[in-house]
Structures are given as C-alpha cells and as structure tokens.
C-alpha cells in the first residue's frame, strides 16, 4: 500500500494506470487503505489540540482536555473513513451514467486514493496554527480534486471528456457530503462531543 501512496503523490498518471490493472482481489485489499491512513490525521489533531494547543491573535494557547480531544478525534476518524466509503459508493453508482466500467471495489479504490493528500497533509494537525493549516488544507483539497480528474478516466476506462463530467459530478457529491458533516458536527456538539478546554 505504501508504494501506491508515494506513487499517487509523485506520479499520479502512472500509479492510476497500475491501479487500473489491479485484479479485484488486490482492489479488495485496498479497502483497508482509508482505515489505516485515516489514523494519521486523527492522531495528529489529537496531539495538536490536547498537547500543543493554538492561539487566536496574541492570546494565550488554548488546548482541549485529553478526554474531549480523544472523543473528537475518534469522531473525526469515523467521519473521514465514512466519507471516503460514501464517495466510493457514489463513484460506483454513477459509473453507468458515464459509461464507466465499475465495480464497488473500483469505486472505493478511486475514493481512497483520491483522499491520499488529505490523509498525508492532515499531519499538519501536530501544529494547529490556523493560517498555516488552512493553507495546507486548501493545498490538500486541490491536490485531491486534481487526482480525481486524472484518475477517473483511467480507472473507469472512459474518454477524458466524459471523465471530466464524471469527476465534476463527484466534486458536487463531495460538497453535499461536506455540508452533511457540518450538520452532524453541530448535532454531535449538542449530544456530548462539545469541545472542553483546559483551564
């Protein structure tokens, strides 16, 4: 799995072609990819919010309690994994519309590999500085969208023009999922996952 992570970040076209040639058994093993990689940003943000802290303006450092940070990090992990699998399902479900050759494992593979920059750059959570992390987040998101546009035509074996439309539809689905996560976050804050700060 590690060679695919490095490959998708350094030479995405060649890596997508290798992944397209993978058999269904290999793709089913790749279902573990988001389960393993999502641990990295969740652990980084746990450490960053509970031990390092952040400041707003010239104020003092703010930190979460360890118990609060662990609950929020666990929910963050679940949200990342759930979002990847949900997008993967939509990749498979929408493939027929665009003439793609898909299986559920292929859809999950596309979603998992596309999320790689988000997982890797999520390690910025070790140092939770708002502006730095915001810039890194925008870079990771842009990179993920680029990977989606490059990978869809290769994995689904469709022309680039149709792949562009397919990937654009998936970006729209991902935005809807993001809005749903914001709603779930608000509800979770009401029912026990409210951030608790160190005095």
Portion of residues in beta strands equals under 5%
The largest sheet is:
none
Class from secondary-structure proportions = mainly alpha
> With helices defined by DSSP (H or I, 4 residues minimum), what is the helix count?
10
- The shape, in one word, is elongated
Radius of gyration: 18 Å
Mean pLDDT: 93
Q: Give the termini separation.
A: 42 Å
Which percent bin holds the helix content? over 70%
The parts where pLDDT drops under 50 for at least 5 residues are: none
DSSP E strands, number: 0
Order of helices and strands: HHHHHHHHHH
What is the topology?
Elements: H1 2-10, H2 12-21, H3 24-29, H4 33-37, H5 39-52, H6 66-95, H7 104-114, H8 116-121, H9 130-156, H10 160-190
Detailed description of the structure:
There is one protein chain. This protein is mainly α. It has helices spanning 2-10, 12-21, 24-29, 33-37, 39-52, 66-95, 104-114, 116-121, 130-156, 160-190. The longest helix has 31 residues, at 160-190. The protein is elongated and about 55 Å long. The mean pLDDT is 93.
Quick synopsis:
This protein is an all-alpha fold and 199 residues long. It has ten helices and no strands. It is elongated and about 55 Å long.
């Amino acid at each position: 799995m590690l060679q695919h992570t490095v490959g998708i970040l350094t030479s995405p076209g060649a890596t997508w072609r290798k992944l397209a040639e993978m058999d269904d058994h290999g793709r089913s093993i790749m279902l573990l990819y988001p389960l393993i990689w999502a641990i990295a940003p969740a652990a980084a943000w746990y450490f960053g919010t509970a031990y390092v802290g952040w400041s707003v303006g010239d104020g003092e450092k703010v930190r979460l309690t360890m118990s609060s940070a662990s609950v929020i990090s666990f929910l963050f992990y679940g949200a990342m994994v759930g979002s990847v699998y949900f997008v993967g399902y939509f990749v498979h479900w929408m493939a027929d519309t665009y003439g793609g050759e898909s299986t559920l494992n292929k859809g999950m593979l596309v979603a998992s590999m596309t999320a790689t920059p988000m997982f890797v750059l999520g390690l910025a959570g070790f140092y939770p500085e708002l502006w730095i992390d915001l810039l890194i987040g925008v870079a990771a998101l842009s990179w993920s969208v680029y990977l989606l546009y490059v990978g869809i035509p290769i994995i689904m074996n469709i022309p680039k023009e149709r792949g562009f439309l397919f990937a654009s539809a998936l970006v729209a689905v991902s935005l809807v999922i993001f809005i749903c996560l914001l709603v779930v976050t608000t509800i979770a804050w009401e029912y026990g996952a409210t951030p608790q700060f160190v005095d």
